[in-house]
Design goal:
This protein has 2 domains: 185 residues, MFS general substrate transporter like domains (Growth Hormone, Chain: A, Up-down Bundle); 210 residues, MFS general substrate transporter like domains (Growth Hormone, Chain: A, Up-down Bundle). The protein is 76% helix and 1% strand. A hairpin with a 2-residue loop joins strand 1 and strand 2. It is globular, with a radius of gyration of 21 Å.
Amino acid sequence: MNIKIRLIVMNFLQYAIWGAWLISLGAYLGGGLKFSGVQIGSFFATMGIASLFMPGIMGVIADRWIPAQKLLGICHLIAGLFLFLAAPQTEYAPLYTYMLLAVMFYMPTIALSNSVAYTSLTAYGYETVKSFPPIRVWGTVGFIVSMIAVDLIRVDGVQLSKTSYQLYFSALLSLVLGIYAFTLPRCGVTRDPDKTSLIDRLGLRAFSLFKHRQMAIFFLFSMCLGIALQITNAFANDYLTNYFGNIPEFAGTFGVEHANILISLSQMSETLCILLIPFFLKRYGIKTVMLISMFAWVLRFGLLGTGDPGSGVWMLILSMLIYGVAFDFFNISGSLYVEKVTKPAIRSSAQGVFMIMTNGFGAFIGSYAAGKVVDMIGWPNSWYVFAGYSLVIALLFMIFFKYKHDPEQLKHEL
């Protein structure tokens, strides 16, 4: 089989595993198990905990001892096992424990799957910059397909997205990819002693960038935006399914009955907005692009608060479409900015710091903080709090982040 097709299958499964529960788990926890907002947030904070150290540790293991494709398979098999163990649990403590363990082994596979793809493409003589993006986009397709599948497939008349069967479905996909990964081309390891320290190997040396005021400000605001990333993942489905589902006027509407499909518009928008980034970065610069993202988050949250699955469904749809700008203009543009301003020797480590600040500290803080807000204020007012938070961050970023855009310089460096 053509290596590109094999890598497409890998990427499709890699993100289908995540899409099976990431968007719908909150609705099951809040509706089926009646967990509080803080408890729901804690499940999404597991990704922040795992992102702080597990990708770095697994990266070292893949470089030194276990080939990346084998470690990818091992991690997915272990994560799938913990998902199977998590699915039948209905009490908070055991369910949280198993989900934490599953996420601990899933999050490193994102980087490992990229490593396998880069290594395989290089070995087969392909240029990674041109060949990888068309392969990676199938990961987003897998995420969307999985979201729609758990929305449409029913067991005993109930959607998978509203039951623990979504975890069984994700676990099955994880086991399939775990086995499939062992058939992928072999990645090399370096068994010779490495003179670099463990701090360097884990990418922590790049934290020295915090000594530079401009980078420190950028990373801190990245963390603040990272706080916003998990809010809709954790609560959008719960909001549509359980809050509006208990209002007679909206019960039975498409947005309530098929919340996952409605939310999947966000991921579809994401794939399209990626294409806009090169133009906006070259034309307007990182500060303006980041501000566009921040104001998009204001609209994203505000429209969720003002819309409804009835006559106001157009506002919900617009909120989903805006997500592509809110997510991509921050996440991908921020990564490109880090690539541009850091020296080659620490660029990989700097990318690691960017991920730690956004998907680590940001996701951890945001998940718990959002849950607390939901418990204290309820719906839909919580969305207005999140919108106000995003607006404050945008205004502060506008004031404190000093960056002079040079289109000619950027044209040569991107």
